[in-house]
Amino acid sequence: LKIWLLLLLLLFVSARSFSSSRLILFILFVLFIFAAGGGSGDQTPAILCCCFSDCNSFPSSSSSSSSSKSATHSAGGKGEKKSSNTEVHAASETNSGGAIQLPRKEGDLFNDALIAYEHRKFKDALHAIEKILKKFPNHGETLCMKGLIVRHCELKPNETEEERKKKAHEFVSQGVKNNIFSHVCWHVYGLLHKADRNYKEASKCYSQALKIDPNNFLVVRDLAQAHLMLREMDEYVDARRKLFELKMGQPGSSDRANQIVIGLFMSEKWEECLEMLNEFEKFDTMDRTRRNGELLAKKKEIPEPTYEDTFQESEILLFRAVVLEKMGKVDECVELLEKNEKKIVDDAARLTQLCRLKIAKGDATAAREIAENDLVNRMPDNEKYHELMHKSMNTKVSLMEPPMKRSEEDIAKLKTLYDALQKKHAKSSVCKRYPLQIVNDSSEFESLLAEYIQKPLRKGVPSLFADISSLYGGIHDEEKSIGKVLKAAADSLKKSGKFPSSSDNKDDVLEAKPKETHRYALNLLAMHYAKIGKIDEALKCIDEAIEAKDENDGDNDGEQEKVLEFHLNKSRFLKRAGDLEGAYEESEIARNMDLADRYINSVSVKRAFQCGKFREAERLGTLFTRDAENYKTNLFDMQCNWYAYEAGHSHEKFEKNTGRALKYYREIRTHCEQIIEDQIDFHRYCVNVKRTLRSFMDTLKMCDDIYASAWFKKAARRAILICVDMHDDPLEAKKERVEAKLSKLDQEERKKERQKTRKEEEKKEKEVESFEKLLADDLKRARETKAKRTGKPVSGENSSNTTTTNNNKNVLPHRIRGHDEAHSEPEFFFFYPGRNAG
Prior knowledge:
Layout: H1 2-14, H2 19-36, H3 44-51, H4 64-73, H5 82-92, H6 104-118, H7 122-135, H8 140-152, H9 161-178, H10 183-195, H11 199-212, H12 217-229, H13 233-246, H14 253-266, H15 270-299, H16 307-327, H17 330-339, H18 347-361, H19 364-378, H20 383-392, H21 408-424, H22 429-433, H23 435-438, H24 442-452, H25 454-459, H26 464-468, H27 478-496, H28 514-531, H29 535-547, H30 556-577, H31 580-593, H32 598-610, H33 614-621, H34 631-637, H35 641-655, H36 658-677, H37 679-690, H38 693-704, H39 710-728, H40 731-743, H41 747-790, H42 819-822
């Protein structure tokens, strides 16, 4: 049909000089169009106008195509008549107007909208887009851009997040329909899905855009990011290879090679990864030569390599060593680490890997020499270095596990080792702690433990019990061994003012502060009783520690520091005993002793939530937020998982407000999603700026395991139980049961029940009002304090000019640009004149 129409049109144009033939062919042409259904009502007027135009003004056959194109795809230019504007306006009212090229004025507006979007000025961007759509309401790329901007704008008063997302998707999908052959529309559609964290759909849209414009650098880059987020590493490598080939030899080629290395490493293709590292080194040398040449031309000298350059080279060498180790090429890896000792900045990482490789080779003597003389001597309190040393001795000792039975040979070796280390590192607590994990004999264990706890108790170290808690559950009896030592220390200090006789206290000298040391010994004994489940005994000991007076009665500041920890421990014991109100009161006593301590304030907030005082907890939470007026937003921004869980559980347990509880539980999932999304920025920083590939691999592993975190599992469990309960017992059914129960009562009793319900609601309203008033007073005091501190008046209202709020957290952030991005187009360069279809 198209071929016949084209032939008839050509015959008609060639016969225009003969009026009779022209008339006959014109009639046949029109009849054929209407008969075949090819001439729709929208297209017929334009054809008729063309055919009835004057013969002298009708263009020649050579220029007819360009004239038709300018009439269809232009909205006016230099030398254009008014009739062309009417034709464009008529075309824009149909879907065919979705693919037209914007005039210069509207094109500039479009570019202004893009710049405003990049700077997150969404109102200005939307205003410019609306101006274009008034004239071209069906322009596809403009509609897509409007949807992307709407997605990131602030929520209107009566608008929900889901409604805004739906509205944005409607605009973008309509734009794609109007110009389905525009790579820009598909790219924007992908960006919208990316903002919704729907990377699967985003990758489909990017792939569709690449079918239209296969060599678009920015679309390929976004496609690679989407594959990385989905952990589709083969597709990620393919996309990164394409980027590498598109700009091979240009500045930034070394960084683009690094991106491929990451994908190959995650795919465990070690041979290809090593080859790509060689390519990276080649292009990195080229980039350095180019930069040195530019500096030589400008400053007439080549500067010495900076520490940053040395650090980047060191990180690449260490990453190469990791790849060689994964390949099983132990000898090559050892040779690389020993040969480049002076080039590698992170010497601790080099020695750690070298020690591990020596153990794998079976060279235990060299491994122990590195672990003992280089690593442990460098940092004697690092447990990982001690574990490497034990591994080189073919033994396993961990401070995180309970003590276990060992052979006499191992005990003798380890004892000799730690006797020497204790003499060498007298101040190291880890060197003194490891012998407690080694011995089998209970009496020897008790004497070592009694000696170990003396120094921390004299100094009042709060973390002493956390240090020895791994001793529980092992081969030594908790009550007869550990409890016996702790009780003996407390009793001896109370009676004689000194510890039981030991090697550390042979002369039986009195302690410098016996009463103070006794109080800390009671605190330690209380924690021991709580650990083994004797809460009553724990409360007796902690009360005795709180009520006891030491030598510094007159020194109020010193007294507060000591008692504070005791009250925190008592709060913990009362919580375990089920006295939630008492636990909150004790935590408040501790908080009021040091109002500047964020941790103690957080404990008090947690205890308030646990006893149902969620409004008081929210008020206390405002004390350490950056902006007291927007404390909820600040707590959300800080990704405070424990706060979200405790708040949700409090609303679920005490208020029976499941909707509010689900909102808080959902925040924890949002935090996990944001952490996963932030790896995009971390990717650019690690790979392009610092080249810390090892750290980036650790980040990817952490993101893969983020949903296995304890807070997420707890919140997910509670949310699932709520949803199942809502499905099994809907709210309407609960209301019907209440009404049925009331209908069985007498009229007077029913009236009393309704009055009781109304009074409870009024009581809640009064509580809310009093809380808001109290919070307003706190905010007022906070503003006044800030004004005194800064010397500037602080307004009580939020700034209305703020463009970034909690509602647009998914906006694509300004990325940290490295060599790769410094020489490539900006985020939306594909929209600008010369690269776009509209």
